[in-house]
Amino acid sequence: EMNLIALRQKMIEKHKSNKDLAFELGISRSAMQRKLSGKTQFSQSELKVLISILQLSDAEILFIFFDDKVS
Question: What is the pTM of this model?
């Protein structure tokens, strides 16, 4: 499950809005909102771009996109 809070924190740190990321990923703002709300997932190519834009470390990638919280 994706750690949406950590992803949003990184967006804030890098001064990137939903609109900015949607544009850079080549998707609509509504598609970006669905991804950021957890309704749909990022594709592999979108993840690569997102990782580059947000300059995520390996640890951040694991924490944000592969966060296995036990419910």
Answer: 0.84
